Amino acid sequence: MTGGRRPRGDMRGAEVLGLALLALLPPCPARRAARFQPTWQSLDARELPAWFDQAKFGIFIHWGVFSVPSFGSEWFWWYWQKEKIQKYVNFMKNNYPSGFKYEDFASLFTAKFFNASQWADIFQASGAKYIVLTSKHHEGFTLWGSEYSWNWNAVDEGPKRDIVKELEVAIRNRTDLRFGLYYSLFEWFHPLFLEDESSTFHKRQFPVSKMLPELYALVNKYRPEVLWSDGDGGAPDDYWNSTGFLAWLYNDSPVRDTVVTNDRWAAGSICKHGGYYTCADRYNPGHLLPHKWENCMTLDKFSWGYRRDAGIGDYLTIEELVKQLVETVSCGGNLLVNIGPTLDGIISTIFEERLRQIGTWLKVNGEAIYETDTWRSQNDTITPDVWYTSKPKEKLVYAIFLKWPTSGKLSLGQPRATLGATEVKLLGHGQPLKWISLEHSGIVVELPQLTVHELPCKWGWALALTSVM
Known about the structure:
The chain is an alpha/beta fold.
């Protein structure tokens, strides 16, 4: 960091080597026989823990020093200092005194109203099954008292609290959600990373003295069951020792049997290596993929961090959010919905409303989302905005439709009825519905005549189809 803050990682010689070697030792008790080797071929063969595919829906939380300016993007520091984008330069000129440095925002990151229990209750109400908190973004500021970040962390600066620990305890004590952490491998302005970068990554000072020991400590201390890596900095996997770390994570870490990881572990690994694929931010291919994937996306269409300058039209509507969830799950993905709390730890009303709304929807339609498989068709060929999921063991196919037909009849081109066995129900309604077969393939379902207030939900509905082909 600049501005007089010397990261603890900025050390030399024996001190660096001693700390790094100590941190890289596997934890006690005694190790098991290694099942996975530090190669992509071995690591990619690991079976993804079943809970992740069953969960379908999680919440991403981008929170850090960037939440203080809360302007433009969580990349504020980079856009202001490195790219010198004019709107960021003007924002600082118009709102802060001359000489104000990005590091000065840290003392203003108060988390004054942060209440981990309150957050946990909101997340539980959303129907999510896991959360992922940014333990450290590209700015390098850690939300726990990292031994390797000196005073550039939430215990020494700003909140003077271990945010990661408080949220971990609340999630595990108050909810049935899995606790996960995001971690940026690189840091924009860390002097050791910049020195390594200038050597075209022949030097490895930053990962050896900062990133690796910090990441090992993070896993050992907080036991995240999702480890969401990001920020490869253009460096290859041998620079980061990604495969070595993941081999330890899968073989010897305290979460070795349940942890899931994504694909952002080095330059060139995205959508190619790792536990599940993210491929790109806001990735929604609209078709079935052969590998488990996740659509990480934002309720604010333009930023991951909180923005004071966001207008109401910048946020997804609940209808758009339900559509994202349904499309994603139908194509075999998980949806990771991001919110950005304010600098003082408040989940703003618009974020809370969307989370509670999707939770209300899932209370009715969760049967068609959680623990489902994909079906032979992802969406319907006759009626737009109809998406399918299935539970083969129960002989169930779910048709989730996002528009209630004005005719009161829903035409489905994909399901083929089984005479004497097929039954159709509307989730949240209960009574079997009448249907007829189409001449070649498909069925027409007669929906119940309900008033707006009698509908089981407001923003999308699901039919449970028994014994269809």
